[in-house]
Write a structure and sequence with these properties.
It is a single chain. This protein has 23 helices and 17 strands. The chain is of the alpha/beta class. The longest helix has 15 residues.
């Protein structure tokens, strides 16, 4: 896929990014990111996340939304393993230099526990770098990594063979600004006593690297080792800041240098053909993430006359208050007699459920991974812990409510367009309601508070957990909502929710179950939580990942079937 500018001069020096260009440290990086992101609230950074309408791309906006709600990386990023922490911080904090500095420092504290595992990003990297030196090209590294990490990784990668390859290295703590400020490049050139011009090539794997090169007035060479699609790369850049070259491998880099040498004889101390190593294969694209196959494009549903929504983690985000209340509640389980009423391991739906029960029983708190994931509701947690024991679940809900009173109040729309979707449904003549296991005292306060103006006028009906004897997954709340609307409980009533209990309640009520996959579970995980077995038969009729997909699904059903 090699692309390059006709005006690109032969390089006198190549300054390389480190991670994602020369080496692969993804395991340590993502481990550190997953440990650091749950700290955003304590660091005071949640409120400093970039507003979605100010994000550079729609992908960045979705990332901000996901991190704001779940305090972790979007599963697609974890699966693809193609972006760096610098890209992430620039996407979610924009130009807020102070916020990015706090985030980088917190990341470094976490990275200290994981770094050390490092390997060449591409097979043959050492041989290619050695050839560049033989050609007389000066080599340097300019990275946002701290010196303590780079020096250790440089000492161990490829059994230490790289330590004498570079004339100079510049790290984040050698300068005052992180990339995309070009100070790391200018500092390297100062040490090399070389001018800042187009014969300086900055080779990096990210948009931030190319922005750094552009700001520094040097030639940006985009190394596409992550195998991004050409149209994806093109969408990142304008004609003004487009890279001088886009290369998929170091083999393509050598091809480009050979071409430039023919145009500029004598540009190098040795011609590329004399020193280049045997060809090594380019990096392979990461395996694609398995997306859910209950997709709106392939299902055939009855047109909705009524759409009922779950509240928490579907229409709104109240995760902070919920998890604070859950944390406060568990130490009371022994006193409430609930520990002995937890399910036996063999009665759990999945091995993960059994491990959660065992952990809560032993430590009286959520497993740290569940707490960090922020993907399941207290209703799901109680279902996992107590199964069909209604009395135990009722006692647990009462305990939760006592503690939730100390934390509730802050409520945000789950996505920016939620209100528009609700208003759009009403314009189509579809009746809209809310079904929530939340008690009415909490729900009505949150309903009035969301988006500062409240959403009370958007719903024809609402049913709360304390309006009926049995909460979801029992269908009583859904049936009561249909009764209040004087409408039969049939598949033309859609129930949209984010949990297994929502799906079970919809199927037991005879309604269409729309699973809202705001947590972005992948297909293997959905198969685990909806196994379709005799013991656990209930599966969603369709899965939507966001409200855009949901709206498209509603419109697709407008003309049929009858």
């Amino acid at each position: 896929m090699a692309q390059f500018s006709d005006n690109l001069p032969a390089p006198s020096v190549m300054v390389f990014d480190w991670h994602g260009t020369l080496v692969d440290t993804h395991d340590a990086m993502f481990s550190a990111m997953e440990e650091m992101l749950p700290q955003l609230e304590d660091l005071g950074l949640v409120e400093r996340l970039l507003p979605e309408d100010q994000c550079r791309t729609s992908d960045d906006a979705r990332l901000v939304r996901y991190i704001r709600i779940f305090r972790r990386l979007h599963p697609r990023i974890l699966a693809e393993r193609r972006v760096s922490r610098t890209d992430i911080f620039n996407a979610i904090f924009g130009d807020d230099r102070e916020a990015k500095l706090i985030a980088h420092e917190a990341y470094n504290d976490c990275y200290r526990k994981y770094f050390g595992k490092v390997r060449p990003f591409q097979q043959g990297a050492y041989e290619y770098l050695k050839a560049l030196k033989q050609m007389g090209i000066r080599l340097s590294v300019a990275t946002n990594r701290n010196r303590e990490f780079l020096d250790k990784e440089l000492a161990v990668v490829d059994e230490g063979r790289w330590q004498n390859l570079f004339d100079v290295t510049v790290c984040a703590d050698d300068v005052t600004e992180y990339k995309p400020d070009p100070e790391v490049i200018t500092r390297a050139l100062d040490e090399l006593d070389l001018p800042l011009d187009e014969r300086v090539w900055y080779v990096g794997d990210s948009y931030v690297d190319m922005l750094t090169a552009n700001k520094g007035g040097v030639s940006g060479i985009f190394y596409n080792g992550a195998a991004w699609e050409p149209e994806r790369i093109n969408s990142w850049f304008s004609s003004r800041d487009r890279p001088s070259a886009i290369l998929d491998s170091f083999e393509e880099l050598m091809d480009l240098l050979a071409l430039l040498e023919r145009n500029e004889p004598g540009a190098f101390r040795a011609v590329p053909a004399e020193v280049r190593p045997r060809p090594y294969p380019k990096p392979q694209r990461p395996a694609p993430r398995q997306e859910p196959d209950w997709h709106p494009a392939v299902v055939r549903l009855i047109r909705p006359a009524v759409v009922l929504f779950d509240w928490h983690a579907t229409l709104v985000d109240t995760l902070d208050a919920m998890y604070h209340a859950v944390d406060d509640m568990f130490p009371e389980f022994q006193e409430l007699g609930l520990v002995d009423r937890m399910l036996a391991p063999e009665d759990s739906k999945t091995p993960e459920d059994a491990r959660l029960v065992a952990y809560v029983r032993e430590f009286a708190r959520l497993h740290p991974k569940v707490r960090a994931d922020r993907k399941i509701s207290r209703t799901d947690i109680f279902e996992v812990l107590f199964g069909d024991d209604q009395e135990a679940k009722h006692a647990a809900h009462l305990a939760f409510n006592r503690h939730y009173r100390n934390h509730y109040g802050t409520v945000k729309a789950f996505e920016p367009k939620v209100r528009e979707v609700l208003e759009g449904l009403r314009r189509l003549g579809i009746q809209v309601g809310v079904i929530t296991n939340r008690d009415r005292e909490f729900f009505e306060h949150e309903l009035d508070a969301v988006e500062d103006t409240g959403w009370t006028h958007l719903f024809e009906v609402d049913v709360c957990g304390d309006d009926v004897p049995l909460r979801k997954p029992h269908p009583d709340q859904l049936l009561l909502a249909a009764e209040k609307l004087h409408y039969p409980a049939d598949p033309s009533v859609w129930y949209v929710g984010d949990s297994t209990t929502d799906v079970i309640a919809a199927k037991r009520a005879g309604m269409t179950a729309v699973f809202f996959n705001g947590a972005q579970w992948d297909q293997p995980w959905l198969n685990r939580i909806f196994p379709g077995t005799h013991k656990h038969p209930d599966k969603p009729d369709v899965v939507v990942n966001n409200f855009s997909e949901f709206w498209a699904l509603v419109l697709a059903c407008e003309v049929g079937p009858p």
